[in-house]
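Structure (tokenized):
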């Protein structure tokens, strides 16, 4: 597959994210860019093999491998077979740096994508949109670029494939138990015993799977249920705090405000139906 588009940019440059180029090439060229490229780049391999050189270190790039290059970052890459098919997106925008930092891509890096299926679907959708060249294609592609970057973060962080699925399955009984018993006072030892682990290892496993500690998940579950109760019934704040597992109403209010940036009373007022 060889296809690409470098759009003439319009007012989409005022958006938080916008695409400056997208394409696929089944016989990738040899590029040496001592001053880098002006925009952010994500390049991934779908067939064949090549190499990329970053900071005098050479990396093999095969199917499923990818690399991110910040703007003006010196680099070199080239094929090592007759066929080296790469797909790429170049992009920019006022919020890109913050987003890439959040996605832990604030510097050049090489990484592996276990399953390209979802990314390829988004890539092809964006490429098709950009080539239609109608007025709002840049705006729609901006939204799809954001989705692409979020999906990239997801699939990269599931880099171990079946191993990650096994970890998720291992933690699932704890998730199910918290979901059913969030109103009760739970202990880390109690949760760890459900899957025959030490409390320390449970915390580490939970963090790997959900980027949360078990009691952070418990707090989110309680706040989620409290929000439903604040909207759907007339119980007072103290009653709702008790109903979701907090014996101390003041502590419940502080946890709620930490998550929602509103007090429970303010949340209720904001979502209260007229005349109720």
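Design, position by position:
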């Amino acid at each position: 597959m060889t296809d690409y588009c470098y759009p003439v940019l319009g007012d989409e440059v005022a958006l938080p994210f916008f695409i400056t180029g997208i394409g696929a090439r089944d016989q990738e060229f040899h590029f040496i860019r001592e001053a880098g490229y002006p925009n952010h780049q994500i390049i991934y391999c779908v067939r064949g093999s090549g190499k990329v050189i970053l900071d005098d270190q050479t990396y093999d790039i095969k199917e499923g491998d990818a690399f991110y290059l910040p703007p003006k970052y010196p680099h070199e890459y080239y094929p090592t077979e007759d066929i080296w098919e790469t797909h790429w997106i170049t992009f920019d925008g006022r919020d890109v740096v913050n987003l890439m930092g959040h996605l832990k891509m604030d510097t050049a890096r090489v990484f592996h994508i276990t399953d390209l299926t979802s990314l390829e679907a988004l890539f092809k959708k964006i490429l098709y949109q950009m080539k239609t060249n109608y007025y709002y294609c840049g705006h729609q592609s901006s939204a799809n670029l954001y989705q692409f970057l979020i999906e990239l973060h997801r699939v990269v962080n599931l880099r171990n494939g079946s191993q990650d699925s096994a970890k998720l399955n291992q933690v699932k009984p704890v998730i199910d138990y918290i979901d059913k018993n969030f109103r009760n006072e739970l202990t880390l030892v109690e949760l760890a015993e459900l899957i025959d682990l030490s409390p320390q290892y449970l915390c580490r496993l939970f963090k790997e799977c959900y980027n949360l500690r078990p009691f952070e998940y418990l707090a989110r579950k309680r706040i989620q249920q409290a929000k439903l109760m604040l909207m759907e019934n007339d119980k007072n704040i103290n009653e709702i705090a008790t109903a979701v597992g907090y014996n101390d109403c003041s502590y419940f209010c502080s946890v709620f405000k930490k998550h929602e940036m509103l007090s429970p009373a303010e949340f209720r007022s904001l979502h209260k139906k007229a005349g109720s």
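Reviewer-requested clarification: The beta strands are 3-5, 18-25, 31-33, 40-54, 57-62, 65-69, 75-92, 109-112. The first strand starts at residue 3 and ends at 5.
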